[in-house]
Amino acid sequence: MAKTPDASRRSDRSRRAILDAALELVGEVGYNKLTIEAIAARAGVGKQTIYRWWPSKAAVLLDASLALAGDAGTEGGWEGFPDTGDLAADLKYVLRATVDEMNDGKYDAPARALTAAGATDPALGAQFNEKLLEPQLALYEERLRTARDAGQIAEDTDLRLAVELLLGPLTHRWLLRTAPLTHAFTDAIVDRVLGGIARVS
Amino acid sequence: MAKTPDASRRSDRSRRAILDAALELVGEVGYNKLTIEAIAARAGVGKQTIYRWWPSKAAVLLDASLALAGDAGTEGGWEGFPDTGDLAADLKYVLRATVDEMNDGKYDAPARALTAAGATDPALGAQFNEKLLEPQLALYEERLRTARDAGQIAEDTDLRLAVELLLGPLTHRWLLRTAPLTHAFTDAIVDRVLGGIARVS
């Protein structure tokens, strides 16, 4: 029997409640202590409802993180990476938006818990890299490729390295909490990665 | 009564056994599951011996990490940051040594477990930053200051940002395991941070 529209709406609501509960809880208790039972209780659904859709808590969190990243894109008002022709401006725009997310507990808490869990659990880390991180890095690479093709950055630029130069300092300061995450910081990263620090003689 | 030389030697041996056990165990089970009882059992000492010297497992691990960093310096054959006058060569030397440590389980496992724990436990993270990370970052800053004073890098270089540009990409690749950690990678970081990626017209 086909689902009625009402049943389908109820499913969507349950699904979203589960994903929201998973994100809240992983931020509160960390990945290791998170259980399917707790997610079900917080979402107000039965455990079996979760197991019908996902095989494990890692799978729930992966979908929850994808949904969260989608929300961030929508709230930030951009789909994909901006390309105004001005590479520095486009990179600054995206890195400022990234910093704003890192400074927002709604994004920070689950992202931090999952990054920490992935760092010490290689299988989990590989899953999150494949589904979440690599697609993001690819957007940066694509924008840098366009800039390279347009002769705006050196022909021999290793695009992956360039992405790591942009995101590495930000990730370092975010995870290790060594200093405040500001737009001035991300702007300076972009300027220095493009221009280098060596004195031009 | 003053300690006899024998008692003092026994103390040193116990102390070292405790630090070694703490490092091994945190790499094996992670920070959250580590207990003073388990460290005592692995080290072959009583729990009270540990509590006589350290108030908490965080304090044991902090001293253990400092001892490990000291060993690394000794094995690497350098005390402090090299200054040959050639900034790029000196940075490459130190970053290559850092990558070698990251690729060595003896250093990687405890450092990874503690970094992950500190990322989600602000008080623990702050303690490790103050005692372990900041003194390391200060060595890089000092070397870059000398280079700036010698006119080798731009006068307006933000030294802390420069350190983050050097170490951020390395930390990103290490923690997230996105790609192999090689000397070619760290050499390329140094070249690009010094020279930038923008095409010089």
UniProtKB/TrEMBL annotation, chains A, B:
SUPFAM superfamilies: Homeodomain-like (SSF46689), Tetracyclin repressor-like, C-terminal domain (SSF48498)
Signal peptide, first to last residue: none
Record's keyword annotation contains Transcription regulation: yes
Any single Pfam family the record assigns to this protein: TetR_N
DNA-binding region: 35-54
Name of the protein: TetR family transcriptional regulator
HTH tetR-type domain boundaries: 12-72
Phylogenetic lineage: Bacteria, Bacillati, Actinomycetota, Actinomycetes, Kitasatosporales
Domain of life: Bacteria
InterPro entries: Homeodomain-like_sf (IPR009057), HTH-type_TetR-like_transc_reg (IPR050109), HTH_TetR (IPR001647), Tet_transcr_reg_TetR-rel_C_sf (IPR036271), TetR_C (IPR011075)
Keywords: DNA-binding, Transcription, Transcription regulation
